[in-house]
Amino acid sequence: MKGASVKQVTLGSKGLTVSRLGLGCMGLSRAYGDADDNESQATLERAIELGVTFLDTADMYGWGHNEELVGRVIRSRRDDVQLATKFGNVIDDDGKRGIDGSPDHVRRACDASLSRLGIDVIDLYYQHRVDTKVPIEETVGAMADLVQDGKVLHLGLSEAATATIRRAHEVHPISALQTEYSLWTRDPETEVLATCRELGIGFVAYAPLGRGFLTGAINSVDDLPEGDWRRRHPRFQAGNFESNRELVSRIEDLASSKGVSAPQLALAWVLAQGDDVVPIPGTRRARHLESNVGALDIELTDDDLAALDEVAPVGAASGDRYPDMSGVNR
After folding, report:
1. Which of 12, 69, 296, 323 gives the lowest tally of CB atoms within 10 Å of its CB?
2. Whose CA is closest to 66, among 93, 97, 94, 41?
3. CA angle, 13 as apex, 181 and 110 as ends, to 5°?
């Protein structure tokens, strides 16, 4: 796979066009153990070469490091990339985490992200988590001012509940909602996806490989490096882990019968949910990236989809998807 042509799709009703498969950049800087900048940069460059041009970062990924890393890669090829970043998660001097959706913070965070990225305009700017202390109308109003000022082209929300999405969309069109979605996290199907489609909002699926669990490469929590945040993740804990590994084993069996890998099948399933659903799997390694791109060529039959529904129905995973669920679906 020397080069590939990943098709482009439209997210939302305001003309945002992105690659059918994106790249989640969080792991290039943090969360999954130590990262190597040279390897991360090579993976970013390979992604663009393959046509995976929808890059997703955030100011909290490495607390600025990730935006700086992505910025170094994209500056010379800005017109080839659709760049998404996020604001809202903050940390104080004592290391305590919080959420800030105040209009003043929206403006400061955007300027800081533009500086770190070394670009003039952000293609898609998300509120990373909803701040329940600030009316969503105030936050999105400030984000809309960024569009008016030419600093941002499109607005997005992440992990927002249906009522919040509707209120936000009344203030300014929301082009994309980013929320976890995969064969072991099918919660959006109960209400959120339908709302997005009703309002003409694209859906960006993060963690479409279950933070690596659905790849089948994790057979024990000991397979995770020290410092990997997944060690604290409920679905990776004893009891839940064994149940979830059995679910993955069933997915692996289906993948084997189809002649593809488990992660490719898991990604193909997300892609099959519609062109308005764009997965953004993360990886540090070019070979995994290339494997992910291969999922775009997999055609799932009705029988395939029915079999996956049977082995991984809504609610099949054991354990919450975060240690603290209070910050999601707000």
Report:
1. 323
2. 41
3. 75
